[in-house]
Specification:
Elements: H1 7-28, H2 30-42, E1 48-51, H3 57-68, E2 80-81, E3 84-85, E4 93-95, H4 96-99, H5 106-115, E5 120-124, H6 126-130, H7 132-144, E6 150-154, H8 169-172, E7 173-175, E8 181-185, E9 191-192, H9 199-212, H10 216-256, H11 258-275, H12 278-283, H13 289-303
Parallel strand pairs: 1-4, 1-5, 5-6, 6-9
Antiparallel strand pairs: 2-3, 7-8
Helix pairs in contact: 5-7, 9-10, 11-13
Length: about 300
């Protein structure tokens, strides 16, 4: 009997065995990991964190406005992708220098904002490549959240150029287990907002595609279709406004000249047939009906006896 475990111990052993097995299956199951990632993304406060150098503030403001005002098609809202359910808008996007509150240091607020962001967008330029602050934001984000996307946006410089390098080192190289930047290079594919690159429209489409888990071609085609529809609506409104303005102008002119128009109508359509003979009408010059009609009327009326008048 000393080698036999009590019934209660057997039950506890079975429970522990099945719990361990469930944890192993949960860890190795890609479907479950995907569900966990989607639920985690849905809980993020920010759709993205914009990291940039102070020299690229104008680009950061443009990108912030373009992302938060981008119209997402209604038929896309709610579709499940690798980044979760597509939201009705990309608000809010965190842009550090505008979103920091007074009374706190940058480091105190950067870490919580990075943790609350589903992705990191880096505005890449020679200034950003030399910025210690930008590089630290990238390194911290990749170290703390290696599964979240880092999206580069090139606005100046040239990748892998000794003098015009635009990629910070934390983007170009892998991190080790301690979060330090190594010398192992990685391939970086970034959108180029310059005219000689992708252009602003296609660059925004590529960034949004990465944030929503869609193809850039689908986002770009939908954005172009929406832009053309908006342009058509704008032209229709402009045509309507011009038509109303023309009607108001004609109405105002008629109101100002209503005395003259009434007199013209009276002489042309009422008095003209009575005061001019057929021979007189044939002698009229184009545009002279009113003058001749008036003169003829005065002459004829002056010949009437006073008793008739």
């Amino acid at each position: 009997m000393s080698g036999v475990l009590p019934l209660g111990c057997w039950r506890w052993d079975c429970c522990l065995f099945w719990l361990c097995l469930a944890q192993i299956f949960r860890h190795n199951s890609p479907q479950l990991r995907a569900v966990e990632d989607v639920s985690e993304i849905a809980q993020f406060k920010y759709r993205a964190f914009i990291s940039y150098s102070h020299a690229d503030t104008d680009w950061a403001r443009w990108l912030h406005r373009a992302l938060e005002s981008f119209p997402i098609d209604k038929d896309l809202v709610g579709r499940e992708t690798a980044t979760g359910a597509i939201p009705p808008s990309l608000r809010p996007i965190f842009r550090d220098r505008d979103d920091f509150t007074a009374g706190h240091t940058l480091n105190e607020q950067t870490r919580p904002a990075l943790d609350a962001s589903a992705a990191l967008i880096v505005i890449c330029s020679p200034s950003a490549a030399k910025s210690h602050y930008v590089n630290e934001e990238i390194r911290a984000f990749k170290s703390l959240h290696p599964k979240r996307p880092v999206v580069p946006l090139i606005v100046d410089g040239k990748p892998h150029d000794r003098e015009l390098e635009c990629f910070p080192s934390a983007i170009k190289f892998k991190l080790d287990a301690t979060g330090r930047v190594t010398k192992k290079a990685i391939e970086v594919l970034g959108a180029d907002a310059r005219d000689e690159g992708d252009g602003k429209a296609l660059a925004i489409a590529k960034i949004i595609a990465g944030l929503l888990g869609l193809s850039s071609d689908e986002v770009f085609r939908r954005a172009e279709r929406e832009r053309r529809a908006t342009a058509r609506r704008r032209r229709g409104v402009q045509a309507l406004v011009c038509g109303l303005a023309l009607l108001l102008a004609l109405g105002g002119l008629g109101w100002l000249e209503q005395g003259y128009l009434r007199e013209q109508y009276h002489w042309r359509w009422i008095m003209l047939p009575d005061v001019l003979t057929a021979a007189d009408e044939r002698k009229l010059k184009p545009g002279g009906e009113f003058t001749e009609c008036k003169n003829g009327c005065v002459l004829r009326w002056s010949s009437f006896p006073p008793a008739v008048l």
